[in-house]
Structures are given as structure tokens and as C-alpha cells.
Request: fold
Amino acid sequence: MFENLSEKLERSFKILKGQGKITEINVAETLKDVRRALLDADVNYKVAKTFTDTVKAKALGQNVINAIKPQELMVKIVHDELAQLMGGETAQLNLSGNPTVILMSGLQGSGKTTFSGKLAKKLKSEKGKRPLLVACDVYRPAAIEQLKVLAGQIDVPVYTEEGNNNPVEIARNAIAYARQNHLDLVIVDTAGRLAVDEQMMDEIEAIKNAVRPQETLFVVDSMTGQDAVNTAKEFNDRLDFDGVVLTKLDGDTRGGAALSIRTVVTKPIKFVGTGEKLDAVDLFHPSRMADRILGMGDIVSLVEKAQQQFDEKKARELQRKIAKNEFNFNDFLGQIQQIKKMGNLKDLASMIPGVGKALKDVEIDDNAFKGIEAIISSMTEKERVNPSIINGSRRKRIAAGSGTSLQEVNRLLTQFEQTRKVMKAATSMKNPMQMMRNMRRR
Reply:
């Protein structure tokens, strides 16, 4: 995501490297490069021009402090303007109403159905909501089945009406069903088309008028670039939606939709989809996205992902075991499983400042822990709790049982011992729970 844009912006800022001050000449040269980088990323031309004009006015209006290099000042100005371009503040969902009704709109293939499941899971786990998914795509049986499969994975009900081809009636009846069954969140998945057409617009407009949703979200595939922006405008002209969901931001996308859509439709981006897994969805934070575009990482989001998996009671017990050198392979396996729940490994690593660039051409397999898990699973319970008893014959048995080599088993045992020592040293320096609380306050 944004890798090419990040590289090109970095090259643009190098024009100012070594310059003693910002001048009209070096600013013009830098911003010509910045505008080219934005256009290459599929940013709307008017948006790119307005953006660089604003940055130029702010850069030339600055009295450069001696301690600040022109290059650093320009990066700060561009960062702040990028954040403003994408909305400035993080936009929250309106969860009022009983039940809260959220209406999904967008073209076929944009990811509406998958996002409906992701949002239901997110609001169920984070807000304690009791969701109902509603299948209003009566034209594509596969869409109804897909919604049922997703609902089964997150353990939420689906409302369907076999034989009823009127999506307006289905949506209205679903809300009545939600009230009767004490469900406080209704997510309505609507039909899409391969292109915008009058029949689709009339239908979704009728659904909106019938159910009066608290939120109407426009879901769009960010990989479609400027087409995404144009489609958003057409939908907004008819529906006056409340926010945008950008899906597939983890793909080979140039990012222009994320940078243009807010300006063109004057509606906030509320969520971004960052993968296929049901937890691969995040609130959209303009400032954090600007950080990532400029290669500054996103340590705040990384900490938040860690906090979602953080159990204070378990952490306290883990700390006690580490301090007494009782940390074992069951604990080790538990930590691996928590890391995996946080999301794509390369995406997580890219949130650490400076690491994203270093990992640009490095492939990090999400199955990187598979061999380790197989080895630990091949150990007996006694061996997991007391790793010191794992002698040569036990190692051979574990290797055979896990389908790995003896060298891999030996390597894991060595790494495990090193990890125990490092963790024991870390706990003697600082309470990890206190560190987590401190990070939460920042």
C-alpha cells in the first residue's frame, strides 16, 4: 500500500537536502516532483494541484528556525496537508437508534458483503453489539450464501426471505425481526451491479427511504483508482451517503482513491479493508495514514492491535512465570497465537518506523509460524512444561512427529532458551503491564 508513492515523495524531499533555507526556486522544484508523484499514484489532477499550491503557500510563509532543516520542515508541511486532504479527524460511526441500521451500497465486487461481515464482527467484539445481517441482494444467490457463511464464522444471525424478490420489504421486515429478537444492530447488504445504472440507484434509494438508516456507507474497491472516485460521486449525488469504506488497500494499489475521494465527495473515509481475514478492517485515521505514506510507520495502530489481544490477568501470570524462569512452550505457543490474531505479519512490521522500507522486497509468509507450531504440538505435555528434559532421543521423535528436521528442532530449542533469558531480563527492568498502560495514555 502506497509503496511507490512513498518512494517518490522521499526522492522529492531530497531536492531540499543540504539546502540552508527554503526558497521559491527549490520549493517549486520539490513540489513539481511531489505533484508528479501524486498523479502517478492516480490522484485526481485538481486535487493534486490544489494540494501542492497549498503546501507551497505554507512553505514560503514559514520562517525557518535554524534548528530545523528545510527538508524536515517540508516533510512536516506535506504530512499535515496529507492528513487534511484525507479528512483531518477520524470519523466515527453513528451508533444511535434502536436498532442501529447501517446500509451498505456500492458496485458488485467492491467487497460489500465481506465488509458487512467484518463490521458485524468488529462491532460485536468491540462495542458489545448484537448484530443482524440482512441479505437484500435478491439477484445473486451466491451473495446470500456468502453472507450466511460469514455470519456462521462470527456467530451472528442472518435475515433472509426465500421467494421474496422485493429488497425494500425484506429490509423493512428485518428491522421488525431485530426488534422482536432484541438485536440492536442491523447491517443491510444490498445488490450491486457491474456498473452504475438507474434501476440499482432507484432500488437502493427506496431501501434507504424505507429503513431510514443511521449510517449509509459506500463501499469501493480502492484498486480501481480514479474510477472509484467517479463512482463515489455518482452514488453520493443520489444517496447522500455518510461515509466511505475503502477495501483492498493491502493490494497492489496506487492509493489515489484514498487521497482524492474525501475532497471530491466531501464525505469522510470511515473504514479501510486491509486483507481477506474477518478482522482485517480498521478505522481510518488520516494522520496515521499520512505517517505511513511518508514512511514514518504507524506505531499507535500497532499498539492498539496489541491491546485488543491484551489480557491483563494473563499478562500478570505470564510476568510471574518469566520472573521465576517458569516460562514454557505452552506460554510460547500462546504468544505466537496472539501475534497471529493481530493480522498480516508484513503489515504489522511495516507499522514500525523505518521497517516498512527495509521489508519492501522481503516476503513474509503468514505461515511463518507453522513449523514452530508443528514442533511444539509434537511435544508431550511434560516436555512443553519442562523443556530441559528434551534429550537427543526426544528431539528425534519430535522432529519425526512434526515433519521437520532435527536441525529445526534444535534451532527452536536454542531460540526458546534465548527468548526466556531476554524476557527474564526485560521483566527485571520494567513491568510490561505498566509499559502497556503508559503506551495507552500517549
